[in-house]
Amino acid sequence: xxxxxxxxxxxxxxxxxxxxxxxxxxxxxxxxxxxxxxxxxxxxxxxxxxxxxxxxxxxxxxxxxxxxxxxxxxxxxxxxxxxxxxxxxxxxxxxxxxxxxxxxxxxxxxxxxxxxxxxxxxxxxxxxxxxxxxxxxxxxxxxxxxxxxxxxxxxxxxxxxxxxxxxxxxxxxxxxxxxxxxxxxxxxxxxxxxxxxxxxxxxxxxxxxxxxxxxxxxxxxxxxxxxxxxxxxxxxxxxxxxxxxxxxxxxxxxxxxxxxxxxxxxxxxxxxxxxxxxxxxxxxxxxxxxxxxxxxxxxxxxxxxxxxxxxxxxxxxxxxxxxxxxxxxxxxxxxxxxxxxxxxxxxxxxxxxxxxxxxxxxxxxxxxxxxxxxxxxxxxxxxxxxxxxxxxxxxxxxxxxxxxxxxxxxxxxxxxxxxxxxxxxxxxxxxxxxxxxxxxxxxxxxxxxxxxxxxxxxxxxxxxxxxxxxxxxxxxxxxxxxxxxxxxxxxxxxxxxxxxxxxxxxxxxxxxxxxxxxxxxxxxxxxxxxxxxxxxxxxxxxxxxxxxxxxxxxxxxxxxxxxxxxxxxxxxxxxxxxxxxxxxxxxxxxxxxxxxxxxxxxxxxxxxxxxxxxxxxxxxxxxxxxxxxxxxxxxxxxxxxxxxxxxxxxxxx
Length: 653
What we know:
Elements (H helix, E strand, L loop, with lengths): L1 H8 L23 H11 L6 H9 L2 H9 L4 H15 L3 H7 L6 H7 L47 H22 L7 H9 L5 H16 L31 H21 L9 H8 L3 H9 L2 H9 L6 H15 L3 H9 L3 H7 L5 H14 L3 H6 L6 H8 L5 H14 L4 H9 L2 H8 L5 H15 L4 H10 L2 H8 L4 H14 L4 H11 L2 H10 L7 H14 L4 H8 L3 H11 L3 H14 L7 H13 L2 H8 L5 H15 L14
């Protein structure tokens, strides 16, 4: 058509039709195998960004590539692998299409006898694991590099559109759950990938492991799979475990596939030809899996990755993958951190913080964050470098992923070291963190608030004042009601730390927030609001800290609605972590003080009128020894409020 238009523009008239090329289809209209392979090869170079992935997925590319994958023809399988690897990367819709039950039934029926054999893989043994919250304050959590995008405003759909969207969502949810709970013979493409892990070609094994890695990342074992699938969210009562606490067949099979892919990647890590292509895939495979991280560590992956990091020929992608994999390996085990320090690559990690490539900077910050989770490592290694300066610079990076990891690393650096706090403050980090706390990105708000929380912990008065000046109370109030509970928790813990240690700090907090300080705590403790018990626990401990202040601070609490609320939670809460700080509030409200005996007596009388004595009497038989001891103290003080000697308000250990 372009040639015809050019001829017309040049006055040459209309040319005849272009002569056809060589035959590329069979009599039944299907593409010949060679042409299909060539198309797959072209598609492999058309997945360079999210938009291209979406276009190919919507056009049905996954189905065509899977047809080639389950065929016996080796060139077709290789071409399909080369295209599927970039197409599946970070593309949950394509991953869902690959394991959609029955979507390959017609094609698979033709090649069942020709399908690749599946390697022998031990059955998965589902295990449950829980994360125990560290002591307050604590290290920043493990973080992945994927971050939420900026919030966007949308126009509310009409009722008809809403009904249509609801129908589509329900259909998508049903589709996800169907894939999760289908029998294993419903996923011929996955079984073909498993078979190709045993191929003689290192390239084929690497591509198969890459596809399995991307596929498994879209169906996490411990959470509802649809949480990773964008708009394909199943109902709240649906989960990857099928609702019974045991993972569905697909998730279990993917766990088997991950275990099978790990030794393949580790062997390729020792191959001088393919070693540099492994780190990025390996980092994704072992992320958030302690089982795979331990297996990789036992296979000497730390040494191999550290060696790659020191190679001058390593490009940005290789450096990013190596740093990210090392960060995952070091996230939870001190012995692995020691292995990495002993490998003498700390300078290369710090250099990564100043790399021109965004991904390398983000991975370097992730690696530093993982190392900084160990106080011993902080004292012996990291504090001797210029890591604080490099991380503070990254807080203003143009890439949000880099900022998230930098804030998480700063979070750990300022935890216990006053010298580091002073250095971080002198570099202007506090101003950057308070600004990031108001970001539209939830991960940025989370980690910046976490860093502010640790900065406030046992900090000097000028640090607290600088924090409150940089973060106006309306901004803090917004964080206390953030849509993300994790952000709310870090915000209220920041407030808790600001109100501890001395009456002058509490006075400064009241000057900053005014009466709304107590109103915010009342909201968190309001039983009519559906609040996480963890948030109520921190709110109560904030009140405990306020009650260690002056007489005016105690009176402000006593004359608010807080006594009624704390007694309500003492009476009705089944959570001991909520009841205990409520009892501490009673102890501090009635702590004897000869200089303000009348005030103590008035507060004790108010508590008695609210029924505190009866509630405490019931708690005398609590299962917790600590609770029984605190209840005993509270009752004794209430009953002898006017006769106790002067003392210092109690503070929970």
